[in-house]
Amino acid sequence: MRTEWTMGQKIRGQNQRAKQAGARYDLTLEQWLETLEYFNHKCAYCGKRDYEFIEHYLPVRVAGTTVSNCVPSCASCNALKDAQNHKLTLYQSERVLAFLESKGVKIAFHIHEYKATKEEHVILYCEGCRNRIDVPGLLPDEAELYIEQYFSNTGYAYQV
Ligand SMILES: [Zn+2]
Ligand SMILES: [Zn+2]
After folding, report:
1. Residue 153 scores a pLDDT above 70
2. Pairing mode, if any, of strands 132-134 and 122-126?
3. Which of 25, 65, 123, 149 is most buried, with most CB under 10 Å away?
């Protein structure tokens, strides 16, 4: 038999997830109802389909379960956002950005441009944000292909 979770239980569950991840967790039922009202109970991303999930704009471990990180999402957009990994199409939804920024955060975007640098071994380094990734065993000759395959143009959205 299927269990119908009440809205309050869903929010408590999402707050619990954030707490376990060591992130902020202070989304209230009242805030969520206002959020649903704002998006007319539709998916915040496509604006067409009914909402099914409390979606975390940034990963829960990064930005937590808060009014400035949670929006309603349909199953398709939710799956697409995951599948796109760090591509920014859905992250850049103007409707979603306007809402989140009305909650007091500023969203900025950054596209990593990793280059291989040789120190004691090959490291991948983004000059834009100084992010550095160590890939044990990566050979200098393979670095370019590796970057292309896994990291090139991986975008990231972050709250300021
Ligand atoms: Zn949608
Ligand atoms: Zn970067």
Report:
1. no
2. antiparallel
3. 65
